[in-house]
Amino acid sequence: MTQPDNLLTADFYGYEALLSEEERKLLLKARDFMRTEVKPLVNEYWARGEFPRELIGKFRELGLAGVAYEGYGDPLPAASHLLTGMLAMEYTRTDPSVATFYGVHNGLAMYSVYSGGDQEQRDRWLPAMAAMDKIGAFAMTEPLGGSDVAGGMRTTAERGADGTWVLNGAKKWIGNATFADLVVVWARDVADNHVKGFVVERGTPGFEPVKIENKVAFRIVENAEITLTDVRVPEANRLQNINSFRDVAGILRATRGGVAWQALGVMIGAYEAALAYAKERKQFGRPIAKFQLVQDLLVRSLGNITACWGMLVQLARLQDNGIFRDEHSSLAKAFVTSRMREVVAWSREIFGGNGIVLDHDVARFFVDAEAIYSFEGTREMNTLIVGKSITGESAFV
């Protein structure tokens, strides 16, 4: 295997070389976009707690939103999971918030339509979503329901005599919801008590998203609390291939693996910032990169990055080979996000007092890591999924 030029400093074992030449061109395209279009904006908008809406048009020009979906992506018919994972890493390496905006749209929302919709629904919504002419959101978590939402979903859907569905309830922490054109809302059908999915279009009466303020992490992401009051949705907007939470679990399985790739991106971003700082910051007349304890922190960080990257490469292979299970994504999410916490702490430590200043980037990675650690299943929930798999015994209450 020939190592390509310009591998990331953090790619110590050359994992990027596993991509095909065509795939790597797309990765480098995304890398250049994040460097030139996104990085100059993120600290300003993070401080303001706002999403830079001008980036939507620039992401549209980037043209990578549909690469994972056969028949809806260009230039690849359908990207490998290795490429889509490395793209998620690349976006997050620059900024976790912007990466989450993209991941919610390109992952959670689009994949819900792609896997949960019938052919008519895929053809109706996915071309516009792939072109980013319509932005998507994914509404599952509720004010009183997080880890227990599968069995305790309070948002309800009731079908009337005319076939129209009426949704009532509330959702919380819904990224992109303040400006999304299409929101995939999950609700419990009162007739059979099973969870079903509905595409609610912007402007539908009774659908009220309100931005959550005063966050100390993911400040660029416009999370919303949504109130649904007699929201009427036609049967044509009910995802036809979703008939229970078991069907929803397949979506979460795939997106949970994507979050692990995001965690890798956070590690790399923090490590790169710390490494660059260590080379330029001088104490006692020499760069702190010459200090043994600083090198120890950097090497431990690189070890975590390299180990997690290897795990995620194999996870992508399992997905591509169709032998990917819940416990595979759960182990990756639990393990990689735990290692991420270590790396962002070690990286911030290298900066000393400067590590709490936004100008140096590492503070943003440090606090944003906490959001990634929590969503798409906590460490505890994912641990119990893996624990049930390896022991054959369920420890869920």
UniProtKB/TrEMBL annotation:
Q: Where is the Acyl-CoA dehydrogenase/oxidase C-terminal domain?
A: 250-390
Which coenzymes or cofactors are required?
Answer: FAD
User: Where do the Acyl-CoA oxidase/dehydrogenase middle domain residues begin and end?
Assistant: 137-231
- Family of this protein: Belongs to the acyl-CoA dehydrogenase family.
SUPFAM superfamilies attached to this UniProt entry: Acyl-CoA dehydrogenase C-terminal domain-like, Acyl-CoA dehydrogenase NM domain-like
Name of the protein this chain belongs to: Glutaryl-CoA dehydrogenase
The molecular function GO annotations come to: acyl-CoA dehydrogenase activity; flavin adenine dinucleotide binding
Q: Where is the Acyl-CoA dehydrogenase/oxidase N-terminal domain?
A: 20-132
Q: Which domain of life is it from?
A: Bacteria
Keyword annotations: FAD, Flavoprotein, Oxidoreductase
State the PANTHER family in the record.
ACYL-COA DEHYDROGENASE, ACYL-COENZYME A OXIDASE
Return one Gene Ontology term, BP aspect. Answer: fatty acid beta-oxidation
This chain's source organism reads Goodfellowiella coeruleoviolacea
